[in-house]
Every structure is written in structure tokens, then in C-alpha cells.
């Protein structure tokens, strides 16, 4: 394969992998389970020490229960570095992640807010024309837990505010 052809192949692979990384955040924040499962190949693994270690599907089941107990959550990805294997069907990546989780506080006067910063170190493969995770390891770099008085945190969102389901306004834009 010519050098230009290899470069284009690798750029297309990097873009496809980046889309899957972003899809993961969208899937969790919109509580779209099928979309979350699409991030891993069948049998792919997820290692989020010390909270979870197992399959990608098992992780989705675990995180669903945890997220259902929250009032809101938001995941952002930055600094995505990807290296494509020489064969063009394997890759590794590191992505920085910031997660904000809000839930009930110890009593009705406050809410609990957890902010974590870490990285996803992923191994990828291209199977049947689809890039997905074979193995993910979450590395926790920092975490902050705070209590916020309810009067500073509570608000009634407008009708078009973000939602944790497929009624979120973004689904109207992304539907075919």
C-alpha cells in the first residue's frame, strides 16, 4: 500500500475511533443502553478499578444501576491520542475524561456532587467494518466530592433542557 494510502487509512480509522469514544459519553449521559453496548466488541473487557472489572456488557449493567440513582451526570472527553497498528485493524488510544455526577445528599438540605478526572486506555480492533473496544482500563487521576446546599443546586429546567433519555433534544437532530 502506498504511503499516502496508509496515511488516509489511518486518518479514517482515527476518526472512526474518536466517534466511538464520543459515543460512549453520549450513551451514558442520555442513558441509551444499546448505544453504550455498541462501544465494545462482544466479549470486550472493562476495568474500572476498584469499582468494576469484567466485560463491557457487565460494566454497562453495573453503571446503569449507579447512574439511575443519580439526578444528573455529564461525561466529557479530551486529549484523544490514537495509534493505529501496522495491519490497520488494531489500535490503542488514551483519552482524558472528566465526569460530573450529582445525586442525593445525606439529607434533603443538600446534594452530593462528585467530579472525577482520569483517562481511558483502550485497545481496539476493526471487525466487520466496525471499530470497537476490545479492552478498556480507566485510570483515576483525581476526584473531588462536595456537598452543595439544595437552594444553590436546585432548579426547574425549561422544557427543552437536557434529558437522560432519548427524548433529549439531540435525538431529534440525529434521527435519520
**Tell me about the biggest sheet?**
6 strands, mixed
Contiguous uncertain segments of 5+ residues: none
Based on secondary structure, the structural category is alpha+beta
CATH architecture designation: Roll
User: What's the helix count?
Assistant: 5
Number of strands: 6
CATH class, named Alpha Beta
Q: How large is the share of residues in beta strands?
A: 35-45%
**If strands are numbered along the chain, what order do they take across the biggest sheet?**
2-1-6-5-4-3
H/E series:
HHEEHEEEEHH
What is the end-to-end distance?
Answer: 35 Å
Q: Give the number of domains.
A: 1
How much is the average pLDDT?
91
In short, what is this structure?
The chain is 31% helix and 45% strand.
Written account of the structure:
The chain has 176 residues and is an alpha+beta fold. It has one domain (3-155): Nuclear Transport Factor 2, Chain: A. The protein has 5 helices and 6 strands. The chain has helices spanning 3-29, 33-37, 56-68, 150-153, 169-174; strands spanning 40-48, 52-55, 72-84, 90-104, 110-127, 130-149. Strands 2-1-6-5-4-3 form a 6-stranded mixed sheet. The radius of gyration is 18 Å and the shape is elongated. It holds the Pfam family SnoaL_4. InterPro entries: NTF2-like_dom_sf (IPR032710), SnoaL-like (IPR037401).
Question: What are the salient characteristics of this protein?
Answer:
176 residues; alpha+beta; Nuclear Transport Factor 2, Chain: A; 6-stranded mixed beta sheet; 5 helices; 6 strands; 31% helix; 45% strand; elongated; SnoaL-like; NTF2-like_dom_sf; Nuclear transport factor 2 family protein
Amino acid at each position: 500500500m502506498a504511503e499516502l494510502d496508509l496515511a488516509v487509512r489511518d486518518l479514517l480509522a482515527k476518526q472512526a475511533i474518536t466517534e466511538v469514544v464520543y459515543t460512549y459519553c453520549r450513551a451514558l449521559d442520555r442513558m441509551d443502553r444499546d448505544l453504550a453496548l455498541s462501544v465494545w466488541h462482544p466479549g470486550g473487557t472493562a476495568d474500572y478499578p476498584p469499582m468494576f472489572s469484567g466485560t463491557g456488557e457487565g460494566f454497562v449493567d453495573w453503571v446503569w444501576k449507579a447512574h439511575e440513582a443519580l439526578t444528573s451526570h455529564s461525561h466529557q472527553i479530551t486529549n484523544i491520542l490514537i495509534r493505529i497498528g501496522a495491519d490497520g485493524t488494531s489500535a490503542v488510544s488514551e483519552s482524558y475524561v472528566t465526569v460530573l455526577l450529582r445525586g442525593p445528599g445525606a439529607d434533603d438540605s443538600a446534594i452530593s456532587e462528585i467530579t472525577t478526572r482520569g483517562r481511558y486506555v483502550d485497545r481496539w480492533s476493526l471487525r466487520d467494518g466496525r471499530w470497537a473496544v476490545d479492552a478498556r482500563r480507566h485510570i483515576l487521576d483525581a476526584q473531588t466530592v462536595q456537598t452543595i446546599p439544595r437552594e444553590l443546586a436546585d432548579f426547574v429546567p425549561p422544557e427543552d433542557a437536557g434529558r437522560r433519555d432519548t427524548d433529549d433534544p439531540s435525538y431529534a437532530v440525529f434521527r435519520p
